[in-house]
Amino acid sequence: MQTLNVDLGDRSYPIHIGPALLDRDDLIRPHITGRQVMIVTNDTVAPLYRQQLETTLARIEGLEVITLILPDGEAYKNLQHLERIWTGLLEARFSRTATLIALGGGVIGDMTGFAAATYQRGIPFIQIPTTLLSQVDSSVGGKTGVNHPLGKNMIGAFHQPQLVLADTDTLSTLPQRELSAGMAEVIKYGLLGDLEFLSWLEAHMEALMARDATLLTEAILQSCACKARLVAEDEREGGVRALLNLGHTFGHAIETEMGYGCWLHGEAVGSGMYLATVASQRMGWLDQADVLRVATLLERAHLPTHPPENMTPKAFLKHMAVDKKNIDGHLRLVLLKPLGQAVLTTAMPQAELEQMLTTECQSGQALS
Amino acid sequence: MQTLNVDLGDRSYPIHIGPALLDRDDLIRPHITGRQVMIVTNDTVAPLYRQQLETTLARIEGLEVITLILPDGEAYKNLQHLERIWTGLLEARFSRTATLIALGGGVIGDMTGFAAATYQRGIPFIQIPTTLLSQVDSSVGGKTGVNHPLGKNMIGAFHQPQLVLADTDTLSTLPQRELSAGMAEVIKYGLLGDLEFLSWLEAHMEALMARDATLLTEAILQSCACKARLVAEDEREGGVRALLNLGHTFGHAIETEMGYGCWLHGEAVGSGMYLATVASQRMGWLDQADVLRVATLLERAHLPTHPPENMTPKAFLKHMAVDKKNIDGHLRLVLLKPLGQAVLTTAMPQAELEQMLTTECQSGQALS
Hints:
The first copy, chain A, has 13 helices and eleven strands. Chain A is α/β, with parallel strands linked by helices.
């Protein structure tokens, strides 16, 4: 087991990474202060890991544990399903000392975290991410929230967990497509801030995709450490933290246009990172070899590069206009300058962006 | 104009109290950082003060100002109406630098504050409270939120405003019943922490109820100062801040049972404070003369003392079981020990509480 401490003053918390962590009541016990616990999970994860977690919690004396199972998928990351968590807590008469445990991927983590942020104005929660995506990404940073019909992650709060348990054993049941989606975020950390890590990924991508346990643990640790460094510098996302959105501005536009859950978040981010790379080349900040290098690595992780085949430049621009990074109507993008270093910029002319999107949308792709 | 600074480190903000503040663009200007402003108000307040505020904001160069009008009343302090604020912000494509302005009473303030706390994970907001209740109470402390069918204020967040403008001119249009409701919270500050202020209120209650402007300004200032002291000590409500809930545990039970909006919040708190006083006497912490003194002052403010005539002890206990102050199922009450000093206690036996509620419910009263 490896442990990373996320340093946020009195909101600091540990991330434990390794096998068989779901059995470790000794790791969970110190982070539960009340007597009431609600596990929030989904109907895919519950049959796999619910009982194991409940058995572990049963070893902590005097706990009242209830479990709420939501339908699986980004399509359910909305206010209606958030309400089910709030209502479940109230029906069980859970007080402000209750703890929520998110057992699942990023959707469960974001929704459970937001429910915890807002139930009785804030209660503690624990993240047990069961996908590569959520282990490397959404378990660090305290971002919680739900989607709104008019935009992704538009309703939410910053709320830090008490503890993150990234049990690598849970990746054994992850579908291949979701492994790829998680790998998109891993690749992101190489692209935005660590050329050495990017080279390490290029050396090991096939072994990683074959789920080599030791390599995956290392990749998760490096990704979390990179994200934790940026978050510690900028908890409320005024500055460097926005760099973590590399690929996400384009990616969110894809998700919004296609309907949440059609392309996986990581797939949309994969394509979004490719588009950000092409945009960076247009700005003269990368050369053709860099673009090829990024495209090749994404393809080795079985990720899309080009946008969905029926996506138009107009659709991109419409959705990108409501991105949270925008200031007073000015579109801000995270681009690469050079490879291995991300910048937040308003320098790209709208016409240039449109032209680039027009070219890329012409070679749009369907997911296999 | 009087100014009180609420000291909360980098979340500190000023409260300005006095006449004609709605005209003061010089006071508002420094607290708006972006270019987009949404005024949230209700259909009672909008005809009275919307235009005045819009005219003031029009003097700030380059602002895009939109106004959202919600129906007036506690019955609309729910998720459905909160969603209208979120949707309005998204439809207007407001970014994370937009500012919300709450123009109205406590319901508008709580809902607007919560919308600000959660829109794109948090944007700034300004409180312009137009009722005595919200001027003395809900504009201080950063509590925001909405009701849930299973409990009052169960969904919310702590989010501090940039600025509070308490324009005493707006009290001229306040219905008498709402003036009384606000006075309940004013009296609360005398009861829970300041015997001298309690005596001052006893000396001036008729003049206050006749809306003597100078006396009202003083009462608002003293109340805000008392609350600000407690909040500064305990922003997240772990300790002394809970004392501010004097009368609220019983009061919330009344509101929940009767349906929100039947008794005004302040009326329920008035009765709740009387019940807390009687409970304190039962504990031997107050004598009969204290109870009479509290009842007399409440009556001079035209506030109810006894619970609603159709309210049962069972209904009280049911609703009090979900109070946020409870710890692991133990009921916690704010009582007086002695007059002028509040304590948070689990010392009252359940049987004693039931007996007291049975006696008091027998002399339940209807509002005139």
